[in-house]
Amino acid sequence: xxxxxxxxxxxxxxxxxxxxxxxxxxxxxxxxxxxxxxxxxxxxxxxxxxxxxxxxxxxxxxxxxxxxxxxxxxxxxxxxxxxxxxxxxxxxxxxxxxxxxxxxxxxxxxxxxxxxxxxxxxxxxxxxxxxxxxxxxxxxxxxxxxxxxxxxxxxxxxxxxxxxxxxxxxxxxxxxxxxxxxxxxxxxxxxxxxxxxxxxxxxxxxxxxxxxxxxxxxxxxxxxxxxxxxxxxxxxxxxxxxxxxxxxxxxxxxxxxxxxxxxxxxxxxxxxxxxxxxxxxxxxxxxxxxxxxxxxxxxxxxxxxxxxxxxxxxxxxxxxxxxxxxx
Length: 327
Fold this sequence. Notes:
alpha/beta, Rossmann fold, 6-stranded parallel β-sheet, 12 helices, 37% helix, globular
């Protein structure tokens, strides 16, 4: 059986799709083909359960689309799964030479894609965690029991000569409203070093460089700055080698969970029961405006109200589970 996965989305979405892909491979013996964006391409293309990968650049879709369409139409697929739920993904599914095209139920579709002539999985709670919502496609295909695993390849070679026991602080977030403050991360890094003698490593993308600089200015260069300096595979190795990961609501948070790390997630405008860490610790203030799901906010009190002590409480718990205690 050849199955085409259309999941173009961000890193976190791709990570949360991997348990479904593993289920399809192990229970159906399927050959998995995946259309994905460039950012997540290295992760998807190296995964043992993915047989072929098609790179689709949504940001340059006019030039990218013809080549993607040729690849999608070059093979007869038994099933195509539209996990993205938007017009672009729906059109790719329609263009594919697939015997069956399967999408979400009407309530969970976006951009009127429920009008497309696809099979629909059964209606379910849209607030369930996305890992479980994606696994509903496995159920639709007759798989009754699925173990949630990610099986992300790690070579175990910690890059950049990082010291043992470090804590990864992922400071970035695609959505501005999801970001914590540089003062908060700086205070947290100082508390971790004071209480445990462990160094903190800043991770994030190139857009997070200015925030990293502010944290370094406050901490006096006591943190290790890798923000905007890692490839995706290097980021995987950095997170895999850490004692714990502290992150806002963004892709590396899900990556930390998939790598089996103790994850402390700082949440504001989103609903963590749906898009939070599948396993881990969540910090979210109970405010009248939460969750609002906004991308930007002039007064993101949900994030600015998170205090260092709130996070340290979860860090203490995460480290104690590993037998690490304050000195």
